[in-house]
UniProtKB/TrEMBL annotation:
GO CC aspect terms: cytoplasm
An MF annotation (GO) of this entry: carboxy-lyase activity
Domain Amidohydrolase-related: 6-353
PANTHER family given in the database record: 2-AMINO-3-CARBOXYLMUCONATE-6-SEMIALDEHYDE DECARBOXYLASE, ISO-OROTATE DECARBOXYLASE (EUROFUNG)
Protein name: Amidohydrolase
Keywords annotated in UniProt: Hydrolase, Lyase
Pfam families from the UniProt entry: Amidohydro_2
Naturally occurring in which organism (per UniProt): Pseudonocardia bannensis
């Protein structure tokens, strides 16, 4: 029986050379002579946190044989899969193919990442599943890659998007992605990551990493609001959405606020068939890490009930610095049925992973 499902594990492309076997000659030449040009103002990589050059990784997660944290499957087995008896783990590779200004190069990189994941991860450990990397700012290209990757390997269980996008994800431009995901029976996962050329908060550029990390939850709120109010969940009735690494304490007040305003401003969105909160409770799932932890540990259970115990799915966020230990993630002991739902049941059902 499947006992533990980890819904957010990060495998890392060790370097661009790892993708070369999967790139056509045209894009190999582009990689060598032009290279990466992204929407991000951080061309050379993210400038913080300064103390963690491995993309926010734990200091003990650097493989002893070299390479980036998350790039060595054997070391991941030792530190995560075997150590914590994880039966299934969903990989979210955050390689920045989706942020390339050259759309076709980005699409080629996304395909290369997915082929690399099949050969070096999915085919090497039966416990692993993976998200499909796509160039989501080029939705037609992304839709084509979803269909190709989903048909190529059953280990792909999700489409990977980021929350800081060039436009809200409910907009029509992104609909081809949802059409392809629904057709292939795959949830769309929105994962903490990414920047664009615009400031990363609604008030401008922050001074500190703690501001960036805290305000990321606001991006998730904006995206789920857009998906609901722009009618995506009505237009694509079988589409599933997963919010990954964005927290969840904000969910009850967002639902209350949306429902309250819908009663007053609902004429703007007359095509909605249900209350906004009903869409969220029915169609959205959320991973647990990072958990907002109340001062009083007992309040965590009350928060989980407010969010909906069927909505939460456990995640460790390995190998990042805010990793959650499967046996120490919750401040308070959960009732056995709630614990079972969060640690395995919800993910098995939502991703259709079987028992």
């Amino acid at each position: 029986m499947t006992r533990l499902v980890d819904c957010d594990v990060h495998n890392a492309v060790p370097d661009d050379a790892a993708l070369r076997p999967y790139l056509p000659a045209r894009w190999l030449d582009h990689m060598d002579h032009v290279g990466s040009r992204t929407f991000s103002p951080y061309e050379a990589g993210f400038v913080y946190p300064k103390v963690s050059p491995g993309g926010g990784a734990r200091t003990d997660a650097w493989p002893p044989g070299g390479g980036l944290p998350g790039s060595d499957l054997d070391f991941m087995r030792e530190q995560l899969l075997d150590r914590y008896d994880i039966d299934l783990a969903i990989l979210n590779c955050l390689y920045r193919a989706a942020e390339q200004r050259n759309e076709d190069y980005g699409a080629a990189l996304a395909t290369a990442v997915n082929q690399w994941q099949v050969e070096h991860w999915l085919d090497r450990d039966p416990r692993l599943r993976a998200s499909i990397s796509v160039t989501f700012e080029s939705p037609e290209l992304a839709a084509a890659e979803i269909r190709r990757a989903a048909a190529s390997h059953r280990g792909f269980v999700q489409v990977l998007l980021f929350p800081r996008t060039l436009a809200p994800l409910g907009r029509r431009r992104y609909w081809p992605i949802y059409d392809a995901a629904q057709e292939c029976g795959l949830p769309v996962g929105i994962h903490f990551a990414s920047t664009t050329g615009a400031p990363i908060t609604s008030a401008g550029w922050p001074s500190f990493y703690i501001e960036d990390h805290t305000s990321m939850s606001v991006a998730f709120q904006a995206q789920v609001t857009s998906l609901i109010l722009d009618g995506v969940l009505d237009r694509f009735p079988r589409l599933k959405v997963v919010l990954i690494e964005g927290g969840f304490a904000w969910v009850p007040p967002l639902m209350w606020r949306l429902d309250g305003l819908y009663h007053r401003l609902g004429a703007e969105v007359p095509d909605l068939a249900r209350l906004p909160s009903e869409y969220l409770r029915d169609r959205v799932r959320i991973t647990t890490q990072p958990m907002e932890e109340p001062e009083r540990p007992g309040d965590l259970l009350e928060l989980i009930e407010e969010v909906g115990q069927h909505i939460l799915m456990f995640s460790t966020d390995y190998p990042h610095w805010d990793f959650d230990h499967p046996k120490r993630a919750f401040q308070t002991k959960l009732p056995p049925d709630v614990h079972d739902r969060i640690m395995r049941g919800n993910a098995l059902d939502y991703y259709d992973l079987g028992a």
